[in-house]
């Protein structure tokens, strides 16, 4: 998606440790118009596929997923929580993920009452690097007996193994911008042709 790539080039900051900082428009300060265009693009990419719910993980995926849901008939958005809460009741699906960005493990939770066996779920998230968070969400989908229609990612780091692994496993993975290389010394970012 050219619009997203242009924003990454214009406002993205490349840091040591393969970090791409895009908090000025994607995952801290939110450009809702851009989110809307991303949702429209995922609607085009997943056209004709059934979507009963969108699943994401807190926190950065929530805004993107909510705006995207409007393009899929205002389907409900369910997000996996990274923290326990006294408001959580009933039984839950649980898994553990490792956050590349935060360098720590999280136990993620989705209440069982929000995923119904047989539903078609579209998974949406802001970043894909090694795929740990997505693999956790896919484990929850498997445990819940829901079908994964596809996976929509805003920015994929194509030089890390997450995307390749998911595609090899047969998932319909649609990333709107795939970064092939980036250099913290020059700030340059190279995208994969799509």
From TrEMBL:
Named from the GO MF annotations, one term is: xanthine phosphoribosyltransferase activity
Which major enzyme category is it? transferase
What EC identifiers does the entry list? 2.4.2.22
Q: What catalytic activity is recorded?
A: XMP + diphosphate = xanthine + 5-phospho-alpha-D-ribose 1-diphosphate
* Signal peptide annotation: none
**Which residue ranges does the record assign to the Phosphoribosyltransferase domain?**
48-158
Gene Ontology, cellular component aspect:
cytoplasm
- Which keywords describe this protein according to UniProt? Cytoplasm, Glycosyltransferase, Purine salvage, Transferase
Residues reported to bind 5-phospho-alpha-D-ribose 1-diphosphate: 129-133
Hey, which pathway is this one from?
Purine metabolism; XMP biosynthesis via salvage pathway; XMP from xanthine: step 1/1
Indicate which residues the UniProt annotation says bind xanthine: 20, 27, 157
Task: Supply the InterPro entries for this chain.
Answer: PRTase-like, PRTase_dom, Pur/Pyrimidine_PRTase, Xanthine_PRibTrfase
Q: Name one GO biological process term.
A: xanthine metabolic process
- Location(s), subcellular: Cytoplasm
Q: Which domain of life is it from?
A: Bacteria
Q: What does this protein do?
A: Converts the preformed base xanthine, a product of nucleic acid breakdown, to xanthosine 5'-monophosphate (XMP), so it can be reused for RNA or DNA synthesis.
- How does the record describe its quaternary structure? Homodimer.
The family this protein is said to belong to: Belongs to the purine/pyrimidine phosphoribosyltransferase family. Xpt subfamily.
Q: What is this protein called?
A: Xanthine phosphoribosyltransferase
Q: Which organism is it from?
A: Parafannyhessea umbonata
């Amino acid at each position: 998606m050219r619009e997203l790539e242009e924003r990454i080039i214009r406002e993205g900051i490349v840091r040591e440790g393969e970090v791409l900082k895009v908090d000025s428009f994607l995952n801290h300060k939110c450009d809702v118009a851009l989110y809307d265009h991303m949702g429209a693009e995922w609607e085009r990419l997943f056209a004709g596929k059934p979507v009963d719910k969108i699943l994401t993980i807190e926190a950065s995926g929530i805004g993107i997923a909510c705006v995207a849901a409007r393009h899929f008939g205002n389907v409900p958005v369910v997000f996996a929580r990274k923290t326990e809460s006294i408001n959580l009741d009933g039984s839950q699906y649980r898994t553990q993920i490792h956050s590349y960005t935060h360098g720590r493990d999280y136990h993620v939770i989705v209440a069982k009452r929000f995923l119904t066996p047989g539903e078609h779920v579209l998974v949406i998230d802001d970043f894909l690097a090694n795929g740990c968070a997505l693999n956790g969400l896919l484990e929850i989908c498997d445990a819940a007996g829901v079908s994964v229609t596809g996976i929509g990612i805003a920015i994929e780091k194509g030089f890390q193994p997450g995307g390749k692994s998911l595609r090899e496993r047969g998932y319909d993975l649609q990333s709107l911008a795939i970064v092939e290389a980036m250099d913290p010394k020059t700030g340059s970012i190279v995208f994969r042709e799509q």
